[in-house]
Structure formats: structure tokens, C-alpha cells
Amino acid sequence: MKTSEFEFGTETNPLVLEKINTPRPRISRCVRFNPEARNSLEPVSIDFGKFRGRKERVYDIEQIFLKNLLSNPNLSLNALRLAIWMVIQIHMWPDEQQIFIISHSDEVSSMNKLCIGHPRGHLAIYLNIEFIDLLPKLKKMSINFTRTDVIAALQELHDFQYLTVTEVKYENSYLGRKARKKEAESKNRAQDIKQPTFLTERCSLVCVTLTKQLYEKNFSGKWTPTL
């Protein structure tokens, strides 16, 4: 995939996915998940492995994820509808990536595969999955979202750590991230690399991964209303 003179999504310059431990602005304000962050001004991510979730005899693990969605009093209706659609209609599973087309562009139209990972040690792999054209798919289910609606809902779900979303663009490629880090360090702003992830208004393509722990444990009693 090319954008101006930059090429990315290839074996030599793959897309680097956002890490699960990137700061999450909204979940950091859920007191029962992170009591020490109550008076903190810095967003954090939550290590779900440190929390005890209720173990249930549920054969359909999707039910646990849905409970963790429906029990959160802070989720907007749009975010809730999008997440349920992903789980029920797309059958998304944890630790598996899915590519969603939010808006068509020249770069998206010319792209038929995407390489993710790290270019060294043969760690980069091509995703052999269909790119899902999101807005038409949602419309078939009478979910009439605009591009802005989808971007906001994905951002919200990312901020509450239900999923991790990576915008497909050169800045998130291996070489793009190296350049960003080098620039930040040259300006003594290395901490900028660890800032929360925000999708841009011009976002056209995203890679989404659902959070594994929210399929395995019921955290429905730990959500609290945020300010």
C-alpha cells in the first residue's frame, strides 16, 4: 500500500498494531477497575489479568463478552450496537484481527492484503482475511451509521479496552513509528509515544482486535459510572 512516497503494509514495512497496554482514557476513570487512578490526571490501561472475574458455566463464551458490554453504564448506544454487531454478526474472536473499511479512498481501493508485525526474524505476516466494508454491512442490519459515528464508536470501545484498534496508515507502520519516535526523542518528548491512541477524522481503514480477557471473565460487577 502506498501513500504519497511512502509504502507500508508490506513485509519490509508492516503495520505495527497498537499494544493492549496502551493508555485507555475512559476505563482509567472506572474506580472499581483502577482505584489508584481516581485522582490521577494520566490515562492508564487496565491489566485484566490482575482482576478476579466471576467464573460461569457458560458454553458460549460470547455470552460473557456481551455481559461485559451490557453491564457498562458508560457506553453510548452507538458503541454498544457496534460491539454487539461485531460479536454476533461477524463472529469476532479474541486475538484475531479483522480489517474494516470505514471509507473508500485511492489507497484502500488499491489494497488487497495487509502485512502486520515486525520485519525482523520473519515475524511479519500477511492477514489472509476479507476486508469488511463496514457501513453497508451495518445498514443491512438497519444500523444507519455515518463515518463519524463509526469512528467515534470504535474510539469509545478502544478507550474502554473492549478492543484495540489500529488505524491503517503510514504513521503506524514499522518505519513510520521509528520516525515518530526519533522525532519525539529529538525534541525531548519521548513520552509522547506512550500517549493514548486516537483515530483521525480522515480514518479510512482500521485493524481491530477484541480483548481476550473480556471473553473469559465476567467483569459486570466492576463497572462504575464515570464523570
Features:
227 residues; 8 strands; two-stranded antiparallel ribbon; globular; alpha+beta; 7 helices
* Sheet of most strands: 4 strands, mixed
Proportion of residues in helical segments:
25-40%
Could you state the order of secondary-structure elements as H and E? EEHHEHEEEHHEHEH
Strand order of the largest sheet: 6-3-8-7
Give the total of beta strands. Answer: 8
Q: Any idea what the shape is?
A: globular
Pick out the low-confidence regions.
none
Number of helices: 7
Taking Cα atoms only, what radius of gyration do you get, to the nearest Å? 18 Å
Class from secondary-structure proportions: alpha+beta
- Percent strand equals 5-15%
Distance between the termini: 41 Å
Question: Your description of this structure?
Answer:
The chain has helices at residues 61-70, 77-88, 106-109, 134-140, 147-159, 174-186, 213-216; strands at 2-3, 6-7, 97-101, 114-116, 125-127, 132-133, 163-167, 205-210. By secondary structure, it is an alpha+beta fold. Helix 1 (61-70) runs antiparallel to helix 2 and helix 2 (77-88) crosses helix 5. The longest helix has 13 residues, at 147-159.
